[in-house]
Request: fold
Amino acid sequence: MLERPYEAYVYAYPHKTAYRPLVPKPSLTDVWRDEPRDALSFYAHIPFCKVRCGFCNLFTRTHASEPLTEAYLDALERQAVAVRTALDESGPAPRFANAAFGGGTPTYLSADELSRLFDIVEKVMGVGFGAVPLSVEASPDTATPDRLAVLAERGTTRLSLGVQSFDDVEARSAVRPQKAADVSAALEAVRASGIPILNIDLIYGIDGQTPDSWRASLRTALRWSPEEIYLYPLYIRPLTGLGRLSLNHDADWDAQRLDLYRLGRDFLLEHGYEQVSMRMFRRLDAPVIEGGEDYACQTDGMIGLGCGARSYTSSLHYSFDYAVSASEVRGIIDEYVATADFTRAEVGYHLDADEQARRFLIQSLLQAEGMQRGDETRFAPELTLLSERGFLNASSDRLSLTAEGLAWSDAIGPLFFSEPVRAAMRAYDLK
Reply:
């Protein structure tokens, strides 16, 4: 336990590889009956990209044609109608506290298609754009002025740009074809759009990356004064482009990534940023948008639309089927597009009281501010281990990770997985 610092990026618990087909498939009306709905999160998944980066294991398809993207939006609208009907039948009208469009790359859609997406979410689901924070993911090659104009006009408050590296050689090494000049043009366009919060994603641990080149990317990012910067360790996962190369990454690579993480963390702290989590850094004078925290959708009920979206109630997480390989993803998207009946949950995981407690602890402890103490008796062995390693600050009323504990977040999160979740993840046939 805690032998290596990079086990898994825990952005949700349980992971989708723990999900299984639900038998029988419950109706969404029953799933959402009497669930709290006064501060829901909304998520729309757009599973399209121009290219698939070598490190990417997201549920996405490249080079989708216009007929396919239009058919996808048709299906998403049918799903929205079914979900909203179920919500109306099962309790009071929902109120949304925040929203996000992710993928894939939502801005793969044309400007007109983006407008239609906004119309579906606003008119069918009732998400009040302009009244709630909205985060949208984009890539440099799709952050064009016409698309950004739609996002800005419809109330987008945060644009997350997947830059990963400002070094052309590093970008090629990560199998991400882009030019630094094109990235700069995209950032100019984002700033010109007036969207209030810009986030820049950067990756460390790329083959050939050095402390100097990593520091250069960080300096370049700061030229744009982004309100947020995310620092991601490179992972090489099965069925990805880099995963097929059988690269030999061992303890030396772990040490390199830790060194680069610490360099990046200290650099940003010295240049006016605060640390929110292992990955997230926020500019100290950045505007604070109520309900716009990056982890809000993991702690509240969430309604997800799209073939790769999750939905969360207090006791059931559900979605559609999951895959990584291009052929399997293509098949799932085609099946989603052809679906007429979206009234039932397909695959998922039921959370009992123990799983709910684990989820709350994982999502809370991995934030820099930590959590208020409660009854953590069931987690005493894990918390004792963290204390012995110097990873935990424990006061009479609060638990939080130390600076080095945050650096090990990707090992600490999995430490709290239940054995049933671990077994389901081990048994999952990734395709």
Remarks:
- The longest strand covers residues 96-103.
- The chain has two domains: 16-348, 353-427.
